[in-house]
Amino acid sequence: MPGSYEAYLDALENICEFVAKEHPSKAELNAWLKRQYKITDKGADERTRFLLRAEVLLMSDSGQLDLADTTRHWNEIGDDGLLISLLHSRTKFFGEMLAELSDKPLPTEELRKTTRRYGLTWDSQTQINYRRGWLQSAKLLKVVDKRHLAITDAGRDLLAKLTIHRPGFEPTGPATPELLLNKTRGGSNYRSPSRQEAIERRRVFEVDPDLVDRGTAAHMDVQDELAEAIRSAGAEPRSPAPHDPQFDVAWQIGDSAFVAEVKSLTEENEDRQLRLGLGQVLSYAFLLDWPGANDVQPVLAVERPPTNEYWGGLCKEHGVILTWPDEFKDLFN
Fold first, then answer.
1. How far is CA 309 from CA 168, 252, 298, 313, in A?
2. What CATH number labels 189-332?
């Protein structure tokens, strides 16, 4: 895909937006790719053919392109694990690359040599680099020591749900993108939000207010305070796995699961933030099928009590717990 190893998914988002809006022919998409990314005719055609071959895009009988259902779902909710599982199910050495990195980090040349056990005879790094771009932009692998590739925690979470054909490797899978579309497995180990990285990706809006909020110190502090309250209550805070909706933190007590959306508030944005958070957490609770839980309780966690008192009643009417740091202890009574 056009761009650096970190930018594959950004490029695909742009392509999806164009295809969903214009329903172009293959030739029209090639021409758009040439203009947009300053690439050659051959480069544009190779990318279009790959997206069709991997069934990221589909072509109708009339020759118009559209998004596959899995791609559309990924584009709507940002489920990168779902997209990678689609590529893994259609193209060799996606999940297998994660499996080869599961024991230790490897330089790309040594990683290429491992492809022989899968019947691949690549004589250059090109195919490794193509796949690396998808996995690295989805944050399933990372670079360590400047030259080694290593699997991330998110990569291990997804790997456990993929069918990998490698001697001695037994995932907890199997999974296909169709299964992942409607199935979750209780999240992954809690990840404290990064206070170093700038916001890298934007969705839905030109500037997504949710991502802007998630990049603020107030949001991060409230999220970590909630995670600590969960630990103090003897439960385990969870972050979303690659196939989960992108909640902030979740946990389970007894046979009840809780899923929380965190929002920072200012005088100017309070109502907008609360409206956004309420819709998000209701969506998350509807989508999650938590293992061992009979129900999923949505929680909207904000940094302070809302100025407008009606928010408490509105949340209660929709079955959402509205809380803030001074009240976190009451979640566990």
1. 59, 29, 19, 8
2. 3.40.1350.10
Sequential pLDDT tens for the chain (333 residues)? 888 899 999 999 999 999 999 999 999 999 999 999 999 999 999 999 999 999 999 999 899 999 988 898 888 877 888 899 889 888 889 989 999 999 899 999 999 998 888 778 888 899 999 999 999 999 999 999 888 999 999 999 888 877 776 544 444 444 445 444 444 456 666 767 655 544 443 343 343 444 444 437 888 899 999 999 999 999 999 988 766 778 899 999 998 999 999 999 888 889 999 999 999 999 999 888 787 888 999 999 999 999 988 999 999 999 999 999 999 999 997
Q: CATH for 1-77, among 2.60.120.10, 1.10.150.530, 1.10.10.10, 3.30.70.120?
A: 1.10.10.10
Which CATH code of 3.10.50, 3.90.1740, 1.10.1060, 1.10.10 fits the domain covering 79-180? 1.10.10
Read off the pTM. Answer: 0.54
Name the DSSP letter for residue 55: T
Q: Within 13 A of 288's CA, how many CA atoms are on the CB side?
A: 36
Q: How far apart are CA 50 and CA 307, in angstroms?
A: 52
- Report the Cα–Cα distance between both ends of the chain, in Å, rounded: 51
